[in-house]
Amino acid sequence: GADGIGKAYAEELASQGINLILISHDRSKLEATATAISEMFNIETIIIEADFTKGREIYQPIREAVKDKEIGILVNSVDVPHEHPQFFLNISEDKLWDFINLNIAATNMMIHILLPRMIERKKGAIVNISSGSCCKPTPQMASYSSAQTYLDHFSRALHFEYASKGIFVQSLLPFYVKNNSNAHNDGLCIYSWIAPSANVYARHAISTLGISHRTSGYWMHSIQFLFAQYMPEWLWVWGATLMNNRMCRKAAQKS
Questions:
Q1: 4 torsion bin: left (phi>0), alpha (psi -120 to 50), beta (else)
Q2: Which PANTHER family does UniProt cross-reference here (predicted)?
């Protein structure tokens, strides 16, 4: 909740008078974000410092910190993208564990901690932010795109499991969004109506909460998602390979 779409989404919730718990590994960013949001929107913010790459050990402190809180909306936006597209064997073992711990384990564990209380109250919403890259297998982004596919399928299945208990689970599938943490923005200097800022994206996405349980969250991304779904797989792979090779060359030039 201290950067990118997560931070922008938090600001949109705060603008509607909703108190926040922000979780991130960067305490200084957390404190700065929490202070700015509290002052701007006159709401209460609590911060929890947690490094999700550490795996199972970090969840007990989170469980203790939230046990007495009535949490109505959970937004899972933790993510570790590729620094640049690369072949699977060029990714270190540590980085692979980061993909698993952040893109998959964190979402599962946070829901497992908070969902029981939502069910008791018979109301609640869970937003899992995945990616439009889940549409098709993406070479040189195999781990990342596969993790996003997992999040999408997991969210949709969870919605069908718990919708009857008053829980709304949304799979949010953005394409490119301009923010400081987006490693792929360089080389993708495209128009703002295709790649909106994180704040513009969050404003559109939050309006779909409670309405659509699977959405790209932004009108142009919905058009992109529709094309991607019906695009032949070979065409997707060809286009993704061209784009990823270009990014690899740019990364090599910078190094």
A1: left
A2: INACTIVE HYDROXYSTEROID DEHYDROGENASE-LIKE PROTEIN 1 (PTHR44889:SF1)
The 10s digit of each residue's pLDDT in 207-248 is 999 999 999 999 999 999 999 989 999 999 998 888 888 877
**63, two tokens:** 């469980």
The model's pTM is 0.89
Catalytic residue ranges: 144
Handedness of CA 170, 163, 223, 104 (dihedral sign): positive
Q: How far apart are CA 105 and CA 46, in angstroms?
A: 23
What is the spatial distance between Cα 194 and Cα 218, in angstroms, rounded to a whole number? Answer: 9
The 10 Å Cβ neighbour count of residue 100 is 16
Helices of type H across the chain: 4-15, 27-41, 59-66, 93-98, 106-121, 142-162, 198-206, 219-230, 233-254
The residue with tokens 């399928």 is 153
Question: pLDDT tens digits for 93-116?
Answer: 998 898 899 889 999 999 999 999
Domain ranges of the chain: 4-253
How large is the angle between the packed helices 59-66 and 106-121, nearest 10 degrees?
20
The three-state secondary structure class of 171 is strand
Position 186 confidence tier, pLDDT thresholds 50, 70, 90? very low
Residues with Cβ within 8 Å of 44's Cβ and at least 6 positions away in sequence, in order, are: 19, 20, 38
